[in-house]
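In line with agreed milestones, the collection of sequences with tokenised folds has grown. One record among many is set out beneath this paragraph:
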Amino acid sequence: MDSYTDGEKSMANRARDWFAQAEKDVALARLAQANASHEWACFAAQQAAEKAVKALHLWRGQEAWGHVVARLLRELPTVPPADLVDRGMVLDNFYVSSRYPNGHPEGAPFEHYGRLQSSEALEHAGQILAYVRAEMAGP
């Protein structure tokens, strides 16, 4: 018998679901980038990071709410490396502006994002997912 209570075990099990979806969102971001839908690649990368960090919160026995990746990282029981919080801050800028025409002074979102932005978003999300994967694999 493990040391989890039923509620904690349920959260840990859901953590795997959240992380699996985060990995799927990164795959979608790569497909969007390959299809020159860089705005969607940026948004999917932000979503992947958000879901991964929420998975780690669940893994650690706590729930997390909201969509701000940097804040979600700061609220982890063990503070992650500062550069991950910085990466989260970059990704947070893609949450609204990559989807809504009023997210920029003019132009549709697709006019504001290119390979440079989507590559950066994928890099940042990848680093956050790698951190979460390692934390969930540890003791």
